[in-house]
Design a protein that fits this description.
By secondary structure, the protein is mainly alpha-helical. It has eleven helices and three strands. A hairpin with a 5-residue loop joins strand 2 and strand 3. Helix 1 crosses helix 4 and helix 9 packs antiparallel against helix 11. The two termini are 31 Å apart.
Amino acid sequence: MPTVSTMSAVPAAPATDLKRRIADRFHEVNGFHPMTAADDAYVSGQFVALEQLCEVRGRDADEVRRLMLAGRLPLPGYLRSDGAEMVPADLFALADEAGGVDLLEAWFTAHWAADPATGQAEWDAYLSGQYVCLHTVTPATIQLKEQLTAAIGAAMDEPYAGSAPWSARLHALVDELDALEPTFTAYDRLRFGGPTSRDTCVDAIRARHPRR
């Protein structure tokens, strides 16, 4: 799960300063890693530039940046090599469902009402922008991904591992995770410091345990 420290409120600032602060915060969370042409192409196919999304949705991009820096909306998932702040096309969907940005945190963490500490950790992870491991980021898909990766890992230690029924159950789990996750790009393996969940729980499992 991605991790990020708590963000504090950010005062109004000029647009150029806001973009610089977003870039600084992004690199604080993700480190400094070069984006290749292949990374840029992947990101452009999966995400949309913040300016473009705000134009389409009738939002003020600078106000959105202020909300990101204040820890009320997630940071961009990527900074393309040309500096574009790349965000999911449904960036505002959860806030809209929650009834507005002011209600988003309470609505989001309520999905972990039985485990408030995990709920807060997931909220911080959501704000980091690092949930690029899901096509659609919602509390439900976050929880489902955790359940699936845990089940796939546990399956490796089952007493009947390797049997045909076991293989069928395993591949059903892998297929479900596969449908949740994009393919990732090389940049992700740099910023996360190793293989992605797709590498370990989808591709590696299919290679080690071919479908029977």
